[in-house]
């Protein structure tokens, strides 16, 4: 039976969700972007121009320099697992193995780690190293016969193995074939992602006659194909779990839940917020007397940053009563804080 629930936002599925998806739905997965390098060249790849083809590393869109930075971001986000992505992480397999060992060592064997690849670089050497390091789940993006060979090889190891592919509007028969072959091999699950539009693939979509939906994120026809596949799998009784994940899910659920958790764990004493957004007040130190500055510092109600004083609502109300101009700043609770809006209050 198709579990539709709120299929417009969290998706729908036949069978059981993989553990990685369950944690993701609760905002409990951090996203580790290991590298923008990849041996494939998929025209629909949504990776941003700032990352694509570049050997850079991010965790939850925050640039990191080393394993210490990575661990700090994962911990402050309150994550119970990570999704390792790229590019193709196996291009940097030695670094990925070190990362997995590092996370498992500090966060325990129960910390869940899944990894995405097309299978182009899957072999016994890499699989042995990844599994020994503590990899829990491997997701292969099927791009050709090498992907099926990789699936067959991965199934020899004690990890959960699945398929994860974007749904192109003209890919109905291709994806049906992928699901049938995956089921025959004994793959645990197939994830179908709504085709996502971005700055890096938009023109290529237009060249192929694809249309971007009114949400500005998804491609028209992708969801329709995915739902048709789900009904087909359900009616045919195919022995594999299939999950459709909408493009809007990341922003509406996964991203916001992770931000709310991160705000609670990284909140500075002068900040407040709601729904994953953080707010604080900035006022020029020239606007406040030295005696008032000292009193605020001693009471831990304000902190000096350059020529600005960072403070919270209580002081903001006082400043307003004193007719002192200040900025109300709103942003994401990232490190450093990502400013979204600045409202001038006078």
From TrEMBL:
Transmembrane segments: none
MF term (GO), any: iron-sulfur cluster binding
One Pfam family here: Radical_SAM
Keywords assigned: Iron, Iron-sulfur, Metal-binding, S-adenosyl-L-methionine
Domain Radical SAM core: 23-234
Entries under SUPFAM superfamilies matching the protein: Radical SAM enzymes (SSF102114)
Domain of life: Archaea
Gene3D superfamilies in the cross-refs: Aldolase class I (3.20.20.70)
Protein name: Radical SAM core domain-containing protein
């Amino acid at each position: 039976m198709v579990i539709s629930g709120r299929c417009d936002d969290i998706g729908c599925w036949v069978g059981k969700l993989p553990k990685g998806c369950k944690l993701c739905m609760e905002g409990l997965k951090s996203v580790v972007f290991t590298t923008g390098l990849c041996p494939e060249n998929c025209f629909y790849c949504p990776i941003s121009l700032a990352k694509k083809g570049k050997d850079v590393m991010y965790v939850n869109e925050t640039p990191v320099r080393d394993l210490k930075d990575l661990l700090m971001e994962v911990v402050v986000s309150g994550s119970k697992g990570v999704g390792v992505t790229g590019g193709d992480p196996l291009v940097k397999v030695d670094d990925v193995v070190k990362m997995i060992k590092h996370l498992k060592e500090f966060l325990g064997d129960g910390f869940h780690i899944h990894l995405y690849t097309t299978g182009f670089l899957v072999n016994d050497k890499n699989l042995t190293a990844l599994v020994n390091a503590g990899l829990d789940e491997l997701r292969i993006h099927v791009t050709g016969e090498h992907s099926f060979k990789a699936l067959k090889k991965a199934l020899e190891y004690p990890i959960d193995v699945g398929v994860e592919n974007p749904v192109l509007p003209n890919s109905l028969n291709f994806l049906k074939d992928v699901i049938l072959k995956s089921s025959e091999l004994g793959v645990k699950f197939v994830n179908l992602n709504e085709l996502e539009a971005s700055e890096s693939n938009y023109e290529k979509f237009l060249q192929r006659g694809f249309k971007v939906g009114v949400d500005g994120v998804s491609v028209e026809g992708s969801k329709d194909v995915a739902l048709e596949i789900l009904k087909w799998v359900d009616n045919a009784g195919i022995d594999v779990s299939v999950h459709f994940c909408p493009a809007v899910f990341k922003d509406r659920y996964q991203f916001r839940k992770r931000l709310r958790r991160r705000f609670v764990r990284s909140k500075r004493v002068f900040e407040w917020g709601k729904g994953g957004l953080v707010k604080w007040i900035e006022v020029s130190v020239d606007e406040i007397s030295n005696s008032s500055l000292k009193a605020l510092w001693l009471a831990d109600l304000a902190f000096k940053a350059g020529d600005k004083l960072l403070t919270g609502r209580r002081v903001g109300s006082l400043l307003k009563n004193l007719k002192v101009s200040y900025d109300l700043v709103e942003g994401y609770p990232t490190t450093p804080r990502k400013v979204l809006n600045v409202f001038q209050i006078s």
